[in-house]
Amino acid sequence: MSESRRAFFYDAAILGAGLFGWGKDLQARRYGIRGEPRAPGTERGNTLVAGGEKKSAQPRMSSLPVLTPDVADLPHEMDGGVKVFHLAGEPVKRKIAPFKTIDAWGYNGSCPGPTIQVQQGDRVRVVFENRLPESTSLHWHGLEIPIEQDGVPYISQKPVAPGEKYVYEFTVHQEGTFFYHAHSAMQEMMGQIGFFVAHPAKDYQPRVDHDYGLILQEWAVLPSNSVPNTAAMEFNWLTFNGVSAPMTTPLLARLGSRVRLRILNLGMDHHPVHLHGHQFVVTGTEGGRAPESTWFPMNTVLIGVAQARVVEFDAKYPGNWMIHCHLPHHMMNSMMDLLRDRQIQTTDQTEAKALSQMESLAKSVPFQHVHPSPIASNAESVPGFPQDAFTEMGMDEVVEKPETYGLPKNWSAGMMGMMTMVRVLPDKEYDAIMSKKTAGPSAQEGRHHE
Ligand SMILES: [Cu+2]
Questions:
Q1: Is-contact 30 38, C-beta < 8 A?
Q2: Burial (CB count <10 Å: 0-12, 13-18, 19+), residue 129
Q3: Alpha helices (H) in 20-151, listed in sequence order
Q4: From ligand 1's centre to the CA of 417, what distance in Å?
């Protein structure tokens, strides 16, 4: 991409941000405070304005806002020079797959909680309300703030009792990818986490055209249950931003653009996150920006518990490139609550038995789905069969949204667990999806078989 072209995208994106994201009144109006997903076309950051019209009156941000697909932003209002956010910890019903809704805990109706974005140097006030059935607090992970604001029950503050409010206020002198979470272990495992992104006072170099955030979580939801078992050490549902593939919203990148991904993990496991078809560099951690002298090419980055890794790459090669945790058990959902028994066994399993299990699954899934891959005629005589046969479930229509437009048939059968994709698209295809997003959500709604 030429410099002038890159500059155009940048300017257009900033304009979009000014119009849709950072004007406080507009922002409050457009994004409900209860964490509804943003209406398509109003996402900040990637909103390209038709014709590239520039309005110099719009405030110029030094950085592109972050997009966290499937998780909304938390709006703020100004009180003098203070950015004021309202955050409520509460039980949340989260649909993590088209046929699976869990009873998680989150913030403002969202799990993970809505994304907070501030500027380095901002004075920030968070008015927190506890709507949980037990005491809690809010910890600001990685932020260098006074001890009274650290959010640790009994150590830095009294726990916030159910029904009570607590006000946190601090100045953010850092830049980087931070997060907020309850400082109570089981509440963390119920989903109480959200992004806290501090944009730098002076933009990072090189600038990026797309900036995305993903939160990695894992859930143990026992058979016929909707409440995660927070004491479990084995997990059967793996999510990016609160949803399992193929429900994850693909990340869109214009061919030739530079992309930043901020990936953060709060669970019991580490996650080696792998990007197909491109090399990236780690440009930051949960501690802030890393100096360029430390960057080296890689395509799999290990994200430990309570860590964030920020990676950047040039989207050079067109295609639908997977990005996923590479732990094999995290590239699937076991769905044992539907199968009632483990499909994959170490003892012999006949095709008939596997198929009868899939039949019970089919009855539990309230929409048409397909198992598109063929098996050998002698499959059941082969020790170890089945492994991945029958686990693939094509459900393209159920998870259809503008971001999935143009994907090959049965694409959803190849997507499971902690997985999404970066769609590197030439201008024509990229613009086609953007105009679908602008067309609004009503065109999509009728097609979701709930
Ligand atoms: Cu993993």
A1: yes
A2: middle
A3: 24-30
A4: 9
pLDDT tens digits, residue range 149-185? 999 999 999 999 999 999 999 999 999 999 999 999 9
For residue 209, what is the DSSP state? Answer: S
Please tell me the distance from the alpha carbon of residue 332 to that of residue 236, in angstroms, as a whole number.
8
Length of the chain: 450
Q: How many CB atoms lie within 10 A of CB 373?
A: 14
Q: Under the phi-then-psi rule, with left for phi > 0, alpha for psi from -120 to 50, and beta for the rest, what region is 108?
A: left
> Separation of 270 CA from ligand 1 center, angstroms?
6
Report CA(273)–ligand 1 centroid distance (Å).
7
**C-alpha to C-alpha distances, 59 to 11, 16, 27, 41, 210, nearest whole angstrom:** 11, 11, 14, 20, 19
The amino acid at residue 222 is: L
Interval between CA 238 and ligand 1 midpoint (Å): 8
CA 306–ligand 1 middle distance (angstroms): 14
Distance 304 CA to ligand 1 centre (A): 10
Supply 155's token pair.
């150590």
Sign of CA dihedral 333, 359, 246, 326: positive
What is the sign, positive or negative, of the torsion defined by CA atoms of 402, 214, 255, 409? negative
State pLDDT tens for residues 16-48: 333 333 333 333 333 332 333 333 333 333 332
Q: Is the pLDDT of residue 14 over 80?
A: no
CA–centroid distance, 265 to ligand 1, in Å, is 9
185 CA from centroid of ligand 1 (Å): 19
* pLDDT, position 369: 66
| CB-CB neighbours of 50 under 10 Å | 10
Q: Could you tell me which residues come within 8 angstroms of residue 89 by beta carbon, excluding any fewer than 6 positions away?
A: 105, 106, 107, 128, 129, 130, 131, 132, 136, 138, 182, 192
SS3 364: helix
Cα–ligand 1 centroid distance for 327 (angstroms): 5
| pLDDT tens column, 323-344 | 999 998 898 876 554 444 454 4
Ligand 1 center from residue 379 Cα (angstroms): 30
